[in-house]
Amino acid sequence: MPTAHFCPIEHLVRKRVITIGIDPHKSSHTAVAIDAAGHKIGQRKFVVNAGTFGQLVRWCEPWSERRFAVEGAGGLGRTLAQQLAAAGEDVVDVPSTLSARARLLATGGDRKTDPADALHVAQVALFRADLRKVTSEGQSTILRLLTERHDDLVNERTRLTNRLHALLRDLLPGGAPTRLSADKAAALMKGIRPITATDNCRRDLARDLLADLRRLDRQVRDNEAQMREALAASRTTLTALPGLGTVLAARVLGHIGDISRFPTEHHFASYTGSAPLDASSGRHVRHRLNTGGNRALNSALHIIAVCQIRDGGRGQEYYLRKIAEGKTPAEARRALKRRLSNVVYRIMKRDQRHQLAAVA
Q: Do residues 81 and 12 share a domain?
C-alpha cells in the first residue's frame, strides 16, 4: 500500500483555513483574504495608526480558521506581525523575493499594485509549507538590540579615539601611543604646556574628547552588564565554549533566535555561511568558499576559531591535524569554523530541550 504524503493545500482545504496576505508600507497596510483554493474573498486597505491592529482583527472576525502571511515580517511588517503573534494568531513570514516571483508568474505580468502584492503574498503562503513562522519577540531580540547598541558605541569610541590621537600628535612630541585609553590620555595631557593660542584650542578640544571618551566607556560597561543579565535570563550554556565571551554569545543568540527553525546542523551551517558550496562538474569534485549566509554569525565563528587556535585545546588540535593533512592555514581555519558551527547548533538544541523539559 503506497505511503500517503502530507499536502499542505489538502490540509488547508479540509480545515477550510482562510489565508490573509498583507502587503505592509509605512503609511498603509493592504490585506487580501483567499480561500483554500486560492480565490480572493476579501480585500481592505488600512491606514497605519494606533488602531490598525484592532481594525484588522475585527475585519477578520468572520473567518475563525485563519492564518496571516506578512511580507517582510522582519522589516516594515515587523510591528504588525509581532502584534498578531502576541495575540495568538498563526503568522508566517513571506520573503519579498518569493512574492516578486509570484507576481511575475501571475496573469498581467509584473504590474505592481498593493492589492495585487497582498494577493501574491497570500498565494505564496498557500503553496509553500516551508515559510518561517513568526513568534513573539523574546530574549533573542533583546540580545540582538544590545549587541547592535554595543557595535554603535564601539564604533563611536574608535572615531573619538582617532580624533584624540590627531590632536595629541600636534600637542606632544611623537604623539600618543597606540591602544589609547582614557586614563592614558589624561596622564599625557597633564604634561601639556601650550605656547600658542592654537595649541590652547587643541588642548581644550582634547579635554572635551576625553570627557566624551569616559562617557562612552561607561556606556559600554553598562551595555555589557545588560548583556550578561540577558544571557543569564536566556539560560544559555554557550558561554562555556572556549573563545565565546559575553558579547559574542549575545550576538550569536540574537541573530539565531529560535534554533528549531533549522532542521539540521547542515541547514544551520548554510545559514552561517560556514558550509562550502558544491561546485562539482562532471568527474571533477570540488567546493568553493561560501560568501553568503549571515555575515555577523560567520564573523563570530571566525573570531571563536582564531581564539581557539591561539589558546590551545581541542580547537587547536583539530586545526593542526588539518594542517598536517596538507590544508593551507586558511582552509584549516574554515574547516574549524564548520566544526564550530555544528558545536554551536548542538549546544543550542540541548539548551532548548532542557528549557522545554523544565517548563513541562
A: yes
How many domains does the chain contain in total?
3
Q: Which residues form the domain of 334? A: 240-359
Q: Which strand (E) or helix (H) includes residue 67? A: strand 66-71
Give 277's strand partners. 288
| Closest C-alpha among 249, 236, 270, 244 to residue 348 | 236
Please, which pLDDT band fits residue 136 given cuts at 50, 70 and 90? confident
What local confidence, expressed as pLDDT, does residue 178 receive?
86
Q: What is the DSSP letter of 284?
A: B
User: What CATH number corresponds to the domain at position 42?
Assistant: 3.30.420.40
Residues in the chain: 360
Whether 156 is covered by a domain: the verdict is: yes
Amino acid at 306: V
CB 209 within 8 A of CB 158: no
Has residue 169 been placed in a domain?
yes
What are the distances in angstroms from CA 246 to CA 206, 233, 253? 32, 13, 11
Q: Which amino acid is at 24?
A: P
Same domain? 208 vs 187: yes
